Amino acid sequence: SCYKHKRELPTKLGISPKRKETDKYIMAKELKHMTKRAENYSQWYNDLVVKAELAEQSAVRGCMVIKPYGYAIWEKMQAQLDKMFKETGVQNAYFPLLIPKSFLSREAEHVKGFAKECAVVTHYRLKASEDGNAVEVDPNAKLEEELIIRPTSETIIWNTYKNWIHSWRDLPLMCNQWCNVMRWEMRTRPFLRTSEFLWQEGHTAHATREEAEKEAQTMLHVYADFAEKWLAVPVVQGVKSETERFAGALDTYTIEAMMQDGKALQSGTSHFLGQNFAKSFDVTYLNKDNKPEYVWATSWGVSTRLIGALIMTHSDDNGLVLPPKIAPIQVAIIPIFKGEEQLKEITAKLQPVIDQLRALGITVKYDDADNKRPGFKFADYELKGVPVRLAMGGRDLENNTIEVMRRDTLEKDSVSFDGIVDYVKNLLDDIQNNIFQKAKDFRDAHIYECENYEEFKEKVKDGGFFLCHWDGTEETEAKIKEDTQATIRCVPFMFEQTPGTDMVSGKPAKYRVIIARSY
User: Fold this and answer.
1) Mean pLDDT rounded to a whole number for the chain
2) How far apart are CA 34 and CA 42, in angstroms?
3) Strands 401-406 and 412-416
4) Which residue has the higher pLDDT, 9 or 496?
5) Buried b (16+ CB within 10 A) or exposed e, 243-262
């Protein structure tokens, strides 16, 4: 291999200068050691978030700092989702961070669902202490009405829509905003559940119930397409049970993904809100007969939780595994050189390839920095899930070859330099498809039909999606949760609703549902 020649290693590692590059590569990987998935899946996840430089804990309890590499993944998600939203007729807008407390009380179910998570602003000014060493809240600066840091924006948006909607000609009104929200969480985990997180929230108004229901389902399918075609995460689409639906919604549609430990992750939701918010905020329009009617509403959103889904669906004990379509760096190219002259030769050989790949829209990192050895670079790009790594050394230059490694399978090959652009382009497509198929095969192998409650209680401990008949009652749903910590994730669209008997109550079943433990 082109990188197996001897090199001097940093003495601080305590590695003999006579060891080969392969040994150094192994040592570099050891330096980035993480907990193994099989040992402690939860700790593996936390380790990976930090070691892959995606995020870290902040000074504010329950909040995280998203580092540049993690934010680059979010930016790619944003860009594609934004394009998909706009193709359906949605426009972006922005609404205030602070919501008058009185707004929340206008929709009873909504306030009930979010009251315990609300962060409240009570004052608008601080003052310095007399010695100047501290600040305190100015008691004379109390707000007349307390303000809520938005946990979601239905109330402030519907108060605004009242001024925008007058007649049927103003409908449909379809807006989305990219923003942050605050939900005061007691137990947090980076990306999966934090007090503050980034997301998008769409809010639409329609003239008829049928149009609103269609919009809610359209956005569900947008989320599912994005999850499967871009994130390579297979999802189950369905509708939530009444107890699991969004506060204030008539129906909540969901995409549920299975993580490698068999737990479910709710990865996106779309809500049919009926006329609840329109009535609470008196949002009416004049129909074609010049008669006033309340509008019909939807809301829908996904968040930085999708980064957590990416990590837990695809990654391995060596680090991240990123689908090419969402990877910030799709191809890393590393020259392995002795001296400036050889570097110039290798760069001259590689530059046309770099230019051609970039012209195809492929993101390329050419890492010719001399402050890190090739082995460390290899380990770092592997840890960060870069889909394709190319390496060229002096021997490759002589033989007109280049080494190619694919991150999903860790397979390496020495291939002809001629035609490398097409080779890499096709390889990226193959990696994207392979990552999705691997996740889908895992998901499908861990979906179980179950009619025996005792058997279910034992098997659910090991994870998986359980397709079970349910009598439709809250009592049965609550007992399952109490006994097993599992919940009804959804009534899935992908499985036929056959008649049967509820495994808990013994009553005739109304639905076949997916039950699983979840994040």
Assistant:
1) 93
2) 12
3) antiparallel
4) 496
5) ebbbbbbbbbbbbbbbbbbb
Rounded average pLDDT over 70-83 = 98
* Site of tokens 């074609």: 288
Tokens describing residue 453: 């409650």
> Within 10 A of 58 (CB to CB), how many other CB atoms are there?
14
Helix runs in 133-262, H state only: 154-164, 209-229
Which H or E element spans position 126? strand 126-128
* Contact (Cβ atoms closer than 8 angstroms) between residue 48 and residue 42: no
Taking the C-alpha atoms of residue 225 and residue 234, their distance in angstroms, rounded to an integer, is: 9
Q: Residues with Cβ < 8 Å from 453, sequence gap 6 or more?
A: 503, 504
Euclidean distance between CA atoms 446 and 440, whole angstroms:
10
Sign of CA dihedral 426, 428, 433, 435: positive
Q: What letter would DSSP give residue 379?
A: H
Q: What is the DSSP letter of 283?
A: -
> Cα(first)–Cα(last) distance of the chain, in Å?
43
What residues pair up with 331 in beta bridges, in sequence order? Answer: 364, 388
Which residue type sits at 514?
I
